[in-house]
Amino acid sequence: MSPDVPLLNDYKQDFFLKRFPQTVLGGPRFKLGYCAPPYIYVNQIILFLMPWVWGGLGTLLYQLGILEDYYTASLSGGLMLFAAFFIQFTSLYARNKSMTVERMLTTDILAEEDEHDFTSCAGTETIKFLIPGKKYVANTVLHSFLAGLMCGLGTWYLLPKRISLLYGSTGGAVLLFLFGWMTLCIGEYSLIVNTAAETATFQTQDTYEITPLMRPLYIFFFVSVDLAHR
């Protein structure tokens, strides 16, 4: 190969810069191939950090001595369960409305595959873009319950007083707390909001929506080992 030939041409580089962060973060599309309204990114950030808000509320009550650890897990899990159902029913409502999202005509599929015409912050086309929704009602219920369970167990696992016993140092507990909640947010977003388009998987072949369950499966594995040990 000639040294003057780039590894990635402009089209592939733009596609990679969009898809790689989406895959790592579990679904949020923070880089689009066109100029999208700011509220598209703000809404995604709010949805991404929502598990941390509910878990943070429970953690605060636990640290203040108001709730026991198991009540803290139940509170955070219950709030996440309610939020998950709210998100799914919002998506279902948007899909059932008569107004549809119109695709803009594009000539470059790699660079502009996500291009939509947005009209408002909470419009139908915005909701459909952010929250595509599930194919089956059973998955809507199952994924919502799994989201609540994962948030509850994750909150219990990441309680500062508990993880401090694991490392015996404040620095280790802080790092585990931050990266642990980042991992939980990634798993929750993939499960109930929007799943990343995996580079080696054709979404049309995922008939039963197994892909959104993969990240939560890894999280459940690590949390279950800790809970079994305790």
Quick structural gist:
By secondary structure, the protein is mainly alpha-helical.
Could you walk me through the main structural features you see in this protein, from its secondary elements to its overall organization?
The protein has 230 residues and is mainly alpha-helical. The protein has one domain (33-102, 116-195, 206-227). 65% of the residues lie in helices and 0% in strands. The chain contains nine helices and no strands. It has helices at 10-25, 38-63, 69-96, 109-112, 124-130, 137-157, 160-167, 170-192, 214-229. Helix 2 runs antiparallel to helix 3 (69-96), helix 3 packs antiparallel against helix 6 and helix 7 (160-167) packs across helix 8 (170-192). The longest helix is centred in the middle third of the chain and has 28 residues, at 69-96. Residues 100-112 have low confidence and may be disordered.
